[in-house]
Design brief:
178 residues; single chain; alpha+beta; 27% helix; 6 strands; two-stranded antiparallel ribbon; Glutaredoxin
Length: 178
C-alpha cells in the first residue's frame, strides 16, 4: 500500500492557523504552518488550576500514541475562566514539570469574546467558543473539518480516539495507557 506524501508548506495549512505564536515561558515563537503543515491538530484551551487539569497527562499519552501518525496537540493556556497562574513560569511548571507535557504549549491567550486569539475566534465561529477549560478541537489537516469536544470528554475516550483515527485514516491502535 503506498504511503501518502505530505507536503509541508504554508499553502497546505489552514488559513486560520497561519500564525506565529510564542511558546510558553520562552522567547521562541513557532510559525504553526511552517512547523505543522499537513498535520491533524488537536487544539486545547488549558488552565493550571482547573478540575480538568489532570487531563494534561492523558493529552500527553494521546500525543505520544498518535504523533508518529500525523497528530499534533497544541495547548493554549487561557485565563478566561480565572483558573490560570498569574506568572507564565508557574504555568510552565504545571505543564512541563507536574504533568510532563512534551507537546507544544504556547503563551497564555484569550479564547473567547472580542479579544479571542484569531485561532479560537475561527474555532468559535465554526463550532462554538469554549464554555470552559480543556475544550478540544480536532482539526483536519486541510482545516475543513473541525470537531469540538467538551471538557468532560476525556482525551483517551473512545469518542475522541475514534475521531482522531478517522482523521488520520488509521485503524484502531492498541489502548492508550495513562
Amino acid at each position: 500500500m503506498p504511503v501518502p506524501v505530505v507536503l509541508a508548506d504554508a499553502e497546505q495549512c489552514p488559513d486560520f492557523l497561519q500564525h506565529t505564536v510564542r511558546k510558553l515561558n520562552s522567547k521562541q515563537s513557532l510559525d504553526l504552518c511552517k512547523e505543522f503543515a499537513g498535520k491533524t491538530f488537536l487544539i486545547v484551551n488549558t488552565a493550571s488550576n482547573c478540575g480538568f487539569t489532570p487531563q494534561f497527562k492523558a493529552l500527553e499519552a494521546l500525543y505520544q500514541e498518535y504523533k508518529d501518525h500525523g497528530l499534533v496537540v497544541l495547548g493554549f493556556p487561557s485565563d478566561n475562566f480565572f483558573q490560570e497562574e498569574d506568572e507564565e513560569q508557574d504555568t510552565a511548571k504545571v505543564c512541563f514539570v507536574n504533568y510532563g507535557v512534551t507537546f507544544p504549549m504556547f503563551a497564555t491567550i484569550e479564547v473567547r469574546g472580542s479579544d479571542a486569539h484569531p485561532i479560537f475566534a475561527h474555532l468559535g465561529e465554526q463550532t462554538a467558543s469554549p464554555y470552559w477549560n480543556f475544550y478540544k478541537y480536532l482539526v483536519s489537516a486541510d482545516g475543513k473539518t473541525i470537531q469540538r469536544f467538551n471538557s468532560r470528554t476525556k482525551p483517551q475516550s473512545e469518542q475522541l480516539t475514534k475521531a482522531i483515527e478517522q482523521q488520520l485514516n488509521i485503524t484502531a491502535l492498541p489502548g492508550i495507557s495513562i
